[in-house]
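Incident review: delayed structure delivery

Summary: a single-chain prediction request sat in the queue longer than the usual turnaround. Root cause was a stuck worker, restarted by the on-call engineer. No data loss occurred. The affected request and its eventual output are reproduced below so the record is complete for anyone auditing the incident later.

Affected input:
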Amino acid sequence: MNIGDVCQILGQVAPLHLAQEWDNVGLLAGDEAADCASILLTIDLTPEVLDEAVRHKVALIMAYHPPLFKPISSLRAGSLETDSLVWRAIRAGIAIYSMHTALDAADGGTCDVLAKICGAVQLQPFEYVDDAKRKCKIVVFVPPDHADRVAEAMSAAGAGIIGQYTRCSFRIPGTGTFLGSQTSNPAIGKAGRYETVAEIRLEMVVPQEAIPAVVSAVRNSHPYEEPAFDIYPLQPRTVGGIGRIGILPEPVSVTALLADLKKKTPTTTPVIVGDFAAQIQRVLVLPGSAGRWPLKCAPGPTDCIVTGDIRHHDARMLERIGIHAVALGHWASERPVLEPLSKRLQDLLPDTKIHVSKEDRDPFRGDRV
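Output delivered after worker restart:
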């Protein structure tokens, strides 16, 4: 497989349209046509991780945090910023891809992994977003003996795809009427005469970008001089977005929840906001930095926010309104996703070697030093 093929698979696991609008996800550097026999997964691209990638001779680094985040004007080897690492990676022929908030929102991604570590069930996202795949429905009226021919032409042009199924259509028999002018050339009946004919109402879904090709296919395959058809926009399908809300099977104290998280995550510097002894029945999970996102979910006194880090003033606000929170550390709240992600990618890319970085480490050191 090449880099472009692998990027398509990565985009299936974490669809890029799920990322926050401020984020920078996808292929950040590299040649899509280059071969890709191995991938390294990491949360951060650091000098040590890049050295590891070179040792393993990987073709692509999936750096969860994008090393190119804001627009840059230069790539310098001696820079103190991460552009120097990107320069080194390019020089070594290693591509860089980032998932970041796309992976947070995706099914089985960062938020789901941390929520399940908490023991939460009945997971729901903080918000729902529109699927980027806009679709329409095209309805064509065609004589019965030409319906298969028109449907096949439409399918070949991109219509009729629903999930894992192709050539999907719905057909209803009916009656069509028309009166052609004296200069018309009707396929059925005569010019200047009112006609009543049997027709099939043929319906197929079509991606918005394929509409021109499908319409052209209708015109080229239809027996009528002027085929009748309608195009209806479909309401976008909603999919899960950022964050997860989950119910705990049994109430636990904030202290007990933190003790369990310390066993199951690489946290070394966890902190608690609120009452240590409070009984928690629901968790609001957002790895990394939660900010004020969880407040959109109307948290109550039996809820606990589980995140990476919390700003001082946000912590004071949570304290004032009586909301509990556990902050595991930014990196520690995100790192658990890499192992399950590795297994998923290995199933999808059986001929590609998937490495999980051993050099990727939390920059903050605590009681596990």
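Verification: The mean pLDDT is 93.
Action items: add queue-age alerting; document worker restart procedure.
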